[in-house]
Amino acid sequence: MNDTFLKACRGEKTAYTPIWIMRQAGRYLPDYQKVRENVTFLELCKTPELCVEVTMQPVDLLGVDAAILFSDILILMEAMGATLQFHEGRGPIFHHTIRDQVALDRLIVPDADEATWFVMETIRLLRKELQVPLIGFAGAPFTCATYLIEGGSSKVFWETKKMMYREPELFHNLMAKITDSTIFYLQAQARAGAQALQLFDSWVGILGPDDFAEFALPYVQRIMAALKPYDVPLIYFANNGATLLDLSVTSGADVIGLDWRIPIGEAIKKVGGKAVQGNLDPFALLLPKDRLRERIGRLLKDAEGAHGHIFNLGHGIHQFTPPEQAKFCVDTVHELSSR
Ligand code: 1CP
Fold first, then answer.
1. H-helix or E-strand containing 93?
2. Does the model's pTM come out above 0.85?
3. What is the CATH number of the domain that holds 151?
4. Which domain holds residue 270?
5. Is the CB of 20 under 6 A from ligand 1?
6. Exposure pattern of 90-118 as b/e (b: 16+ CB <10 Å)?
7. Going residue by residue through the chain (339 aa), what tens digit of pLDDT does each one get?
8. How many domains does the chain have?
9. Residue nearest to atom 35 of ligand 1 (CA)
10. Nearest CA to ligand 1 atom 15
11. Which of 37, 62, 73, 149 to mutate to test the pocket of ligand 1 (most atoms within 8 A of CB)?
C-alpha cells in the first residue's frame, strides 16, 4: 500500500512528493471515452463497476499516488431532489432553479446510504482493488448553491449574488440545507472507506473576503467539524482563492488546495502548519518537456518549507491535454522530489 499521499496530508516526512491530478479521470483519456461511448455521464456515475473502472484508469496509466472517486459534485444535488441533466457541450442543467423558499422546501436532506448507494458501493469496491489511498469528495455548499440558483454553469453568477444581497435569509437557508446533506454524504463516504475527503469550492473565488466570511466559510467550517471525528485528512480547495487564503486556513481542513494564481511559497507562509496541495497551472502541461520539467523543479523547491506538500494542478486537467504530458508530469515530480 502506497501511503505517501496520506503521510503528506498529515505533514509527515515522505520519500518523495506525492502527486495526483485534479479531474484525473475523464475525457482527456481515450479509455474513458471508450466507456462513455456506451453510457450517458449520469448512467456512468450510477454504475459502480464502471465508476471503479474509470477511477482506476489514471491510477494505472499515470502512476499517481492517490485515486479520486469517480462521480460528480452535482450527484448530491440530484439526490436532494433537483432534476439534473447533462447536455453534451452545454454541461449540467437544472431545469427547476432554486430561487424561492417554496422551491427550497421541495429539496430534501437525503439518506446518503440510500439515495447515493452507488457512490458508497463504488467506494467499497475500489478499496478492494486500489494500492493507493482513495479520496472521496463533494462540492462545497457555495459552489453547489450556484448551480441550483443559476440552473447550471455560469460566468456572471447574477442570480446567486442577487439572492445573497437581496434575500440573505433565503440564501443562508439554502446553504444550510446543502451543508446538512453534504455532512451526511461525506460521513457515509468515510464509513464506506474513503481515506481522505475533499471539498471543491470551484466558484467561491467570485466572493470578496467579507462575503466569503459571511456567506460561505461558516458552512465549510460546519462540514469540516462534523467530519473531524472520522479521522481522515480533510482537504479544502477554494479555486481562485488566493485572496481568501487567510480565511480558508480557518476552515478546519488539514490540507489547503491552491490554484496556480499564487506563488506556492507565498501561500505556504500564510497556510503555516497545514499541508498544501497544488499548484501547477493545468495549461503548463502544454509546455515542451524541458520547460515543464524546469517549472516542476521550481515548484517543488518553492514548496520545500511546507508542512506537507501534495503536488497537483491548480485546477482540473483540461480535456484536450495529451495524456503522455500528464504521465511525464507524474514521473518528473517523483524523480525530482526523491530524497
Ligand atoms: O461528458 C462527460 O463525460 C462528463 C464530463 C465530466 C466528468 C468526467 C463531468 C461533468 N464531471 C466529471 C467527473 C468529475 N467531476 C470528477 C471525478 C473525476 C476525477 O476527478 O477524476 C470530479 C472530482 C468532478 C468535480 C466537479 N464537477 C467540479 C469540481 C472540480 C472543478 O473542476 O472545479 C465541478 C465544478 C463539477 C461540475 C461539472 N461536472 C461536469 C461538468 C461539465 C461540470 C460543469 C463545470 C462548469 O460549470 O464549468
1. strand 91-94
2. yes
3. 3.20.20.210
4. 4-337
5. no
6. eebebeeebbeeebbeebebbebbebbee
7. 999 999 999 999 999 999 999 999 999 999 999 999 999 999 999 999 999 999 999 999 999 999 999 999 999 999 999 999 999 888 999 999 999 999 999 999 999 999 999 999 999 999 999 999 999 999 999 999 999 999 999 999 999 999 999 999 999 999 999 999 999 999 999 999 999 999 999 999 999 999 999 999 999 999 999 999 999 999 999 999 999 999 999 999 999 999 999 999 999 999 989 999 999 999 999 999 999 999 999 999 999 999 999 999 999 999 999 999 999 999 999 999 998
8. 1
9. 202
10. 72
11. 73
